[in-house]
């Protein structure tokens, strides 16, 4: 078992087989640096619980294919990303920090799917981005491809 | 996560790029408007390559991205042969390094076309220079020197036109050769052999042509009071291209102010019997029509030139379903993003 500690000082025990899906922790274990608790100063307990849930479900990915559990795993993934924006971004940052490739793929794809039809205003609000383009610059971009800014599917809601 | 907006969401650029590269082109063009950083990220050549790579790996992806150099428009999209190549300058898009290659050493300067191919066996990129009349030369990018590979037997001359006229697929370069019958000449770069691929007889030959020059043929038109040869009045252009790994030949036939565009597709590589006429399009307002891409549902994207418009327009073969194609060029006119809506 490997012990992980979140930035709000909560400790979690995870099976080695699950936790080595994180390249970062795998390297630490291989280098013999994982004998005591591994502190994760960038990850809060709420996010870490999500990540561990994913890791535990995805142990032995190879076996899933043999035993026909692929659909089950797919369903789990779909349910897993069904979370709020902020939560999703926390998981993405944790997956990036821990270097968990599959989780990164899953969450970035989900983020992209959600952003796909959003309006510019909605994206700015969702990602808390301040617009620093001048009106002229903005108009120039719109004039380049007005068709990208029009259409019934463009969604101005923030969720 | 702070949701009151005071701190915002701080993704590093790498993550933003990862997410953005999964978006369709239409969204990307819109999101250039989000902020200066997003605009810069989306306009980066590195991003274009990453986006292209993801789209290529995703068979179901309805989006395509053309990387084209205005000066070498023969190098079209989505194959190794499409890597931008200009004036014998090699660009490696993944590392963004470029090298100026040695100019050709042997052959007299005549018109030629160039193709870029990749030999998977040796892992070497090759540039083939095909002359209209004479031999061809090949350059292995690793060795950096040109070498003559001769010419295929039985082929009188290469038949190159201003349409796409060469393609790299199945480990070999392909171009139109003119022998007794029109055929496709192929040069396999791993085994260094020429081959001839024939299409069913007369498939892309237009009867009555008696003069062929640079892929453009002229027909004698008989008028009541005599014979005139009117160049350009009645002509045929041929192009060779690849759609979804399949070799295709497209022709443009002009007669009496009407254009006829034909496309033949060879479904199984090298099997003459597997070739079929894919479409015949008649038009009075389009004067150029080049197939560019085949979608997974079999629909083909066409790059057309219209008499009234100076830019290319894009259509699909199933026009009736309403096409949502559009064209965007960056300031240098180099990158064309196309998306099927």
UniProtKB/TrEMBL annotation, chain A:
Residues 1-59 form the SKP1 component POZ domain. Coiled coil: none annotated. SUPFAM superfamilies: POZ domain, Skp1 dimerisation domain-like. InterPro entries: SKP1, SKP1-like, SKP1-like_dim_sf, SKP1/BTB/POZ_sf, Skp1_comp_dimer, Skp1_comp_POZ. GO terms for cellular component: cytoplasm; nucleus. Keywords: Ubl conjugation pathway. One of its GO terms (biological process) is protein ubiquitination. One of its GO terms (molecular function) is cullin family protein binding. It holds the Pfam family Skp1_POZ. The keyword Lyase does not apply. Pathway: Protein modification; protein ubiquitination. Residues 102-148 form the SKP1 component dimerisation domain. CDD domains: BTB_POZ_SKP1. Part of a SCF (SKP1-cullin-F-box) protein ligase complex. Involved in ubiquitination and subsequent proteasomal degradation of target proteins. Together with CUL1, RBX1 and a F-box protein, it forms a SCF E3 ubiquitin ligase complex. The functional specificity of this complex depends on the type of F-box protein. In the SCF complex, it serves as an adapter that links the F-box protein to CUL1. Belongs to the SKP1 family. This is SKP1-like protein. The lineage of its organism: Eukaryota, Viridiplantae, Streptophyta, Embryophyta, Tracheophyta.
Automatic annotation (TrEMBL), chain B:
Gene3D superfamilies: 1.20.1280.50. Transmembrane segments: none annotated. SMART domains: FBOX. Residues 11-51 form the F-box domain. It holds the Pfam family F-box. This is F-box domain-containing protein. CDD domains: F-box_AtFBW1-like.
């Amino acid at each position: 078992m490997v012990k992980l500690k979140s930035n709000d000082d909560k400790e979690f025990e995870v099976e080695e087989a699950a936790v080595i899906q994180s390249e970062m922790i795998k390297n630490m274990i291989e280098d013999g640096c994982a004998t005591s608790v591994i502190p994760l100063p960038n990850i809060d307990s709420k996010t870490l619980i999500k990540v561990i849930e994913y890791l535990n479900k995805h142990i032995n990915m190879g076996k899933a294919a043999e035993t026909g559990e692929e659909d089950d795993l797919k369903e789990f993934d779909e349910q897993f990303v069904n979370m709020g924006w902020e939560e999703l971004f926390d998981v993405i940052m944790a997956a990036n920090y821990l270097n968990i490739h599959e989780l990164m793929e899953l969450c970035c794809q989900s983020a992209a799917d959600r952003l796909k039809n959003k309006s510019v205003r909605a994206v700015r609000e969702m990602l808390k981005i301040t617009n620093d383009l001048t009106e002229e610059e903005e108009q120039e971009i719109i004039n380049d491809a007005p068709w990208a800014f029009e259409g019934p599917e463009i969604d101005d809601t923030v969720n | 996560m702070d949701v009151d907006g005071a701190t915002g969401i701080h993704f590093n650029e790498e993550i933003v790029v990862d997410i953005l590269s999964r978006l369709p082109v239409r969204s990307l063009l819109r999101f250039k408007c989000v902020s200066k950083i997003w605009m810069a990220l989306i306009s980066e050549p590195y991003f274009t390559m990453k986006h292209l790579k993801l789209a290529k790996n995703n068979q179901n992806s309805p989006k395509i991205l053309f990387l084209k150099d205005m000066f070498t428009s023969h190098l079209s999209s989505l194959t190794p042969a499409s890597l931008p190549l200009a004036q014998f300058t090699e660009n490696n898009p993944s590392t963004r390094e470029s090298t100026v290659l040695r100019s050709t050493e042997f052959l007299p300067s005549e018109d030629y076309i160039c193709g870029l191919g990749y030999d998977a066996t040796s892992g070497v990129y090759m540039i083939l220079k095909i002359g209209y009349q004479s031999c061809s030369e090949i350059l292995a990018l690793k060795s950096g020197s040109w070498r003559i590979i001769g010419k295929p037997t039985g082929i009188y001359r290469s038949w190159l036109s201003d349409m796409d006229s060469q393609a790299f697929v199945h480990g070999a370069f392909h171009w139109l050769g003119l022998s007794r019958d029109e055929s496709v000449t192929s040069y396999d770069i791993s085994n260094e052999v020429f081959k001839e691929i024939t299409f069913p007889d007369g498939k892309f030959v237009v009867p009555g042509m008696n003069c062929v020059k640079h892929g453009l043929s002229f027909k004698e038109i008989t008028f009541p009071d005599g014979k005139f040869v009117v160049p350009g009045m009645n002509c045929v252009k041929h192009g060779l291209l690849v759609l979804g790994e399949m070799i295709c030949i497209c022709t443009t036939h002009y007669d009496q102010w009407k254009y006829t565009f034909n496309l033949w597709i060879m479904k199984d590589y090298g099997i003459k019997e597997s070739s079929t006429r894919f479409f015949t399009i008649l038009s009075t307002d389009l004067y150029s029509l080049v197939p560019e891409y085949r979608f997974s549902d079999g629909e083909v994207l066409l790059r057309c030139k219209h008499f009234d418009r100076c830019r290319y327009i894009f259509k699909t073969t199933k026009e009736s379903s309403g096409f949502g194609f559009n064209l965007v060029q960056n300031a240098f006119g180099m990158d064309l993003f196309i998306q099927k809506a």
